[in-house]
C-alpha cells in the first residue's frame, strides 16, 4: 500500500481501484504536498465532533458507516482525516503522540507500525482490552497490539490472509493442473513446492509469459506464514539468523535466479499492464488484492482467473484503530472504535471493498459481490481466506520491522532479480542497508 514497503503497497493498491465499485478499495484521496487530505465523514450538526486519522482508505466512509453511526447518535459528528502515504502518516502521528497534543480522537495503526506503537507508545493509548471482549478477534491479531503486561492499544480492523491467484487458461496451455483443490495439494505445506510448480510451468509456458510476477511477492508471502521474522520475543533483531527469513529468502532466490519471474516491481505501472496483458500466471494473493487484480485485468480476465489455497496459512497486511489518551473525547471515541470494528461493521466493509475481517464471527455472513465471484471462476473466496485466517501463526513484529523488510525486498532481492547479482551479493546489499537502518 504505498511505495516500497508492504504498507506502501497496500495503500497504492487501494488507490488504484478507486473507480471499482466491486473491487478492493474505492475513492483514495489524491496526495497533497504533505501526503494529507481531509474529508468529512458526513454532514455536520453534531454536538461532539470525533476525528479519525487514517492512512489511505479504510472503507468506513465508503460503506456508509459514518453516516449510519451519526444517524444513530445525532449528537456525534465524525470527521475523517486521511493521510494517503503511511511514510507521512506515521511519523506525523508519532510526533503528536509524544507531544501529547494534536492527535485525532481515533488513530489508525498499520501492521508494520504496531510493534513500535506497542513498545514505545503504549502509555499514549487507552487500554481498549478493558472495553471489549478480546476473544472476538483472532488470537494472533490481538497479540500484535498487546503489550507484555496485557494492555491492548488497538482493535483489529482488516487482515490479509493469503491465497494464490492464478490464470487457469495459462495453466491449461502449459499442461498443468487447473482444478483449484488439486493444485493446492501440489504445493501444500511449503512455498518451495509452489516454486517447483513454476519450474514445470516454464517447460511449456505460453509464449511471452512467466510463472510469477516477482521474487519479492514470493518472499513476502512465504514470510507471512512464518512465526519467526526479524525480531525475537525479547525485542532483539535476529533477521540474519531467522529461520523464517531464511526459508522465505531461499524460495525467493529460486525464483530470482530462474526464468520463471516477470521481474516486475509490484504496483508500478508495468506490473499493472502485465495483468491486462496476461504476462504472468500466478501471484501471491492476500484478500485485499483480489479487487486490484479484477480491476487491472479487466473484462478480458473474467473467468480466466481462479483462487487456490496458499502453500501455508499466511498474512500480508492489516491494521488497527486506537484511542490516544490525549484525545478530547475518549469516552465517545472508545464507543465509536468498538462499533466500527464490531463483526457487523467489518462484514459491511468487506461487502463494499473486500477488506477481510479480523473477527471470525463475521465470516459466516460474508458475501463477495457477484461480479468478483464470477471473475474468479466461482471460487469459494470467503472459505479460502477464512480457512487461512484461522490458522495463521502469531508473528513477532519489531520496531524497525517495516524498513528491514523493505531493505530485503527492494534492495536485496531486486539486486539479484533485476541486476543479475548473486544471492550472496543481494544478501550483503540488504545487510548493509539494514545496518544503516538500525544505526549499527
UniProtKB/TrEMBL annotation:
Name the domain of life this protein comes from.
Answer: Bacteria
Signal: present as a keyword of the record? yes
Which keywords does UniProt give here? Answer: Signal
Q: Which Gene3D superfamilies does the UniProt entry name for this protein?
A: Periplasmic binding protein-like II
Which InterPro entries did the record assign? Bact_solute-bd_prot1, SBP
Task: Give the matching Pfam families.
Answer: SBP_bac_8
Entries under SUPFAM superfamilies matching the protein:
Periplasmic binding protein-like II
Q: Tell me the leader sequence span.
A: 1-26
Is Signal one of the keywords? yes
Q: Which PROSITE patterns match?
A: PROKAR_LIPOPROTEIN
Q: What is this protein called?
A: ABC transporter substrate-binding protein
